[in-house]
Amino acid sequence: MLYYYLGFSTSEIAELMHVPAATVRTRLARGRSKLKFILEEGDREIQSNQAGLRVRPSR
To answer: Which of 5, 14, 28, 59 is spaced 20 to 30 A from 51 at the CA atom?
Structure first.
């Protein structure tokens, strides 16, 4: 929220959260990676459903 919606820099966020700026950048990268995975999984499920296949979510 702070970075993408409110426009805070990673150094500003680091100061607010009392963590190193590198930690903020790492957390942002991990969040983007997780979001990409979630979106790709959803896309695969949609494609499978369109093909008439039943997809069981992985755990």
So the answer is: 59
Nearest 5 degrees, angle CA 25-CA 39-CA 1? 40
Residue 55 has pLDDT above 60, yes or no: no
**Triad 17, 23, 2: Cα angle to 5°:** 50
CB 56 within 8 A of CB 44: no
Can you give the pTM of this predicted structure? 0.71
Identify the three-state secondary structure at position 9.
Answer: coil
Non-local CB neighbours of 45 within 8 Å, separated by 6+ positions:
55, 57
In the predicted structure, residue 41 carries a pLDDT above the cut 90: no
- Two structure tokens written together for 36: 């990409």
Residue 50: both structure tokens together: 């369109």
